């Protein structure tokens, strides 16, 4: 049985080492980007109060995390979006469509009670397969 190589990628967030998690894990040609928020490296929540901006910042961070692991946004096949206020879905999805309208990964938008930091309005995960491509019919 052949084993697939696993690589962990850090975003540099202090809690990654303290708690024990990675921003991104690559196993073979599969890339998994964990829950991503707008907290920057200084611990500041960017885009506070702005659902559209937080979503856009997160998706930019996810794109960089994918690239660090050798993947592209166009290879994303699944996105999970967690929000604290589903009534603002148009704002979240406006930013989402700027990144994924043509890629069309499977997606879920779910309302949750809260995040660890109350200033977070949205948290997003993404999965990709390196080497995958969209077939148009």
Structural write-up:
This protein has 137 residues and is of the alpha+beta class. The chain has one domain: RutC-like (60s Ribosomal Protein L30, Chain: A, 2-Layer Sandwich), CATH 3.30.1330.40. 27% of the residues lie in helices and 27% in strands. The chain has a six-stranded mixed beta sheet, covered by helices on one side. The chain starts with 5 loop residues before the first strand and ends in an 8-residue tail after the last strand.
Number of separate structural domains? 1
Helix content: 25-40%
Spatial order of strands in the largest sheet: 1-2-3-6-4-5
CATH class: Alpha Beta
Radius of gyration, in angstroms, nearest whole number: 15 Å
Number of β-strand runs: 6
N- to C-terminal separation?
37 Å
Largest sheet: 6 strands, mixed
The CATH superfamily is RutC-like
Unreliable residue stretches? none
Tell me the series of helices and strands, N- to C-terminal: EHEEHEHEE
Named CATH architecture: 2-Layer Sandwich
Q: Can you tell me the overall shape?
A: globular
CATH topology: 60s Ribosomal Protein L30, Chain: A
The assigned structural class equals alpha+beta
Q: State which percent range the strand residues make up.
A: 25-35%
Number of helices: 3
Average residue-wise pLDDT: 92
Pfam families: Ribonuc_L-PSP (PF01042)
Summarize the structure.
Pfam families: Ribonuc_L-PSP. The chain has 137 residues and is of the alpha+beta class.
List the helices and strands and how they pair.
Blueprint: E1 6-9, H1 14-20, E2 24-27, E3 30-36, H2 51-68, E4 76-83, H3 89-100, E5 106-111, E6 122-129
Parallel strand pairs: 4-5
Antiparallel strand pairs: 1-2, 2-3, 3-6, 4-6
Helix pairs in contact: 2-3
């Amino acid at each position: 049985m052949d084993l697939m190589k696993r690589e962990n990628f850090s975003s540099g967030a202090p809690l990654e080492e303290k708690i024990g998690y990675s921003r991104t894990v690559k196993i073979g040609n599969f890339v998994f980007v964990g829950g991503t928020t707008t907290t920057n490296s200084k611990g500041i929540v960017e885009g506070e109060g702005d659902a559209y901006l937080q979503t856009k910042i997160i998706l930019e961070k996810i794109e960089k995390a994918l690239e660090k692991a050798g993947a592209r946004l166009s290879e994303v096949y699944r996105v999970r979006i967690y929000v604290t206020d589903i009534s603002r879905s148009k704002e979240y999805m406006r930013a989402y469509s700027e990144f994924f309208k043509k890629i069309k990964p499977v997606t879920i938008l779910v309302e949750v009670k809260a995040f660890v930091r109350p200033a977070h309005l949205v948290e997003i995960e993404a999965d990709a397969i390196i080497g995958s491509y969209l077939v148009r019919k």
